[in-house]
Each structure stands twice: as structure tokens, then as C-alpha cells.
Amino acid sequence: MNRTTFPRLFVFSVLILAILAVVSSSAQDASEGSRKVVSKVMPLYPAMLRSMNIQGTVRADVLVAADGKVKSLEVKGGHPLLAQSAETALRQWRWAPASHESHETVDLIFKP
User: Fold this and answer.
1) What gap in Å lies between CA 107 and CA 90, rounded to an integer?
2) pLDDT value at residue 65
3) How far apart are CA 86 and CA 35, in angstroms?
4) What's the helix, strand, coil split of the chain in %, to 5?
5) What local confidence, expressed as pLDDT, does residue 37 receive?
6) Cα-based angle 51, 87, 82 (whole degrees, multiple of 5)
7) Which one of 26, 31, 37, 93 is most buried, counting C-beta atoms within 10 A?
8) Between the CA of residue 99 and those of 35, 81, 94, what are the distances in Å?
């Protein structure tokens, strides 16, 4: 191995590891914050959107009360046509009780 090959190989390895980390985290149906989710309701995928092959991820910031119920939520990104379905489902989620309320970021992935 010459002197220019090693740095290139190192950079390539770091890039591969970063890509694998992103792919493994985005392959999940939903990702949550620090509190444990004890009850999930998966969002309904509207049939018309499914037939039109509209897909994407909806990200929401959920304010969870100390008792684990959703106090409020704000959609932070994603396809606007999928946001309503995501919001309806997230309002039914329950988290583990805690001593205080917390903000949880949730990504819901819609794939036909």
C-alpha cells in the first residue's frame, strides 16, 4: 500500500460506516426519543395515496405529559397529505410514565 492509498481507504471506510448508520436508522417504521413507547397505533395509509405511490416520512415533535399521554404535537416535516394520518395515530400513542413531561421526536415512514 502506498502513502496515498491508506488515507483514501480510511475515508472510504468512514463514509461506509456513516451510510450504514443512516440506512439502519431510516429502515425502521418509527423512531422515538428517550422515553419508552408502551402503546403504538400505526397510521392508516390512505388508499388513494398508496395507489398514487405517494410515500415519505412524517416527522413530529410530541409533547408527552408525565402520565405518558400525548399533550400536544406538531408536525415538523413530511408530505402534507400523509401528515393528518400520522397525527391521528400519534395522538393515540402512550409512553411510559415519568416524573415530568418531555418532548419526543417521532418519524413515521409511509411505504406502499
Assistant:
1) 10
2) 97
3) 19
4) 35, 30, 35
5) 96
6) 25
7) 93
8) 11, 35, 15
Which amino acid, one-letter code, is at 66? A
pTM given for the model: 0.68
Query: pLDDT tens for residues 45-104?
Result: 999 999 999 999 999 999 999 999 999 999 999 999 999 999 999 999 999 999 999 999
Grid cell in block for residue 9 = 481507504
Q: How many degrees, rounded to 5, is the angle at CA 49 between CA 21 and CA 107?
A: 30
What DSSP designation does 71 have? E
Q: Which are the contacts of 76, defined by CB distance < 8 A and separation ≥ 6?
A: 59, 60, 61, 105
Question: For the chain, how far is it from start to end, CA to CA, in angstroms?
Answer: 47
